[in-house]
Amino acid sequence: MSKPFVAVLMGSDSDLPTMQATLDVLKTFDIQFEAKVTSAHRTPAATHAYVTDAEARGCKVFICAAGLAAHLAGAVAGITTRPVIGVPVDCGPLQGHDALLSTVMMPGGVPVATVAIGSAGAKNAGYLAAQMLAVGDDVLAQRVKEERASSAEAVQAKDAKLQEKLANV
Ligand code: RP5
């Protein structure tokens, strides 16, 4: 029986520092993942072969990160009907604005759920994949809820600290 997992694809190893945030979030939720460097432009046949095989092996969500003329997420979305999350990487002279438009502007019928440019988007890609998987997994859904609550508590603690500081000036 195939085991459910998330595939995290990136166009180059230069995307890894950005995508580490995605891997960290998936680890936090104990979500199985595979990470792979594969390119829509430089290794199109290998990308196609990997996506087809990963889907057959139980991949539930693909997260695809690329910079510049970022077509990885769109190319993957054209191969699979699993949800595809696109992360525009903030590299090059246009600092990810090019990657954002290349990733988000998909033709109707082949969606890519595009997150923010750079590390915030990479982090949200992990959370969004967790929320997608949580639809059919009550234990994971509970963990996602708890994580959201603890992030709210962290903000409240920061506010309490600020109020304390202001009271002492
Ligand atoms: C994209 O081109 C990659 O995803 C990367 O963001 C960018 C630059 O790649 P390298 O030249 O660093 O390999 O395809």
Automatic annotation (TrEMBL):
Record SUPFAM superfamilies: N5-CAIR mutase (phosphoribosylaminoimidazole carboxylase, PurE) (SSF52255)
All residue ranges annotated as the PurE domain in the record: 4-155
E.C. number(s) listed in UniProt: 5.4.99.18
Record-linked InterPro entries: PurE_ClassI, PurE_dom, PurE_prokaryotes
Keywords on record: Isomerase, Lyase, Purine biosynthesis
Pathway(s): Purine metabolism; IMP biosynthesis via de novo pathway; 5-amino-1-(5-phospho-D-ribosyl)imidazole-4-carboxylate from 5-amino-1-(5-phospho-D-ribosyl)imidazole (N5-CAIR route): step 2/2
Residues at which substrate binds: 12, 15, 42
Tree of life domain: Bacteria
GO MF annotation, one: 5-(carboxyamino)imidazole ribonucleotide mutase activity
Pfam families: AIRC
Catalytic activity annotation: 5-carboxyamino-1-(5-phospho-D-ribosyl)imidazole + H(+) = 5-amino-1-(5-phospho-D-ribosyl)imidazole-4-carboxylate
Gene Ontology BP terms: 'de novo' IMP biosynthetic process
Family assignment from sequence similarity: Belongs to the AIR carboxylase family. Class I subfamily.
Stored HAMAP family: PurE_classI (MF_01929)
Function text: Catalyzes the conversion of N5-carboxyaminoimidazole ribonucleotide (N5-CAIR) to 4-carboxy-5-aminoimidazole ribonucleotide (CAIR).
Name used for this protein in its record: N5-carboxyaminoimidazole ribonucleotide mutase
Gene source species: Shewanella atlantica
Lineage of the species this protein comes from: Bacteria, Pseudomonadati, Pseudomonadota, Gammaproteobacteria, Alteromonadales
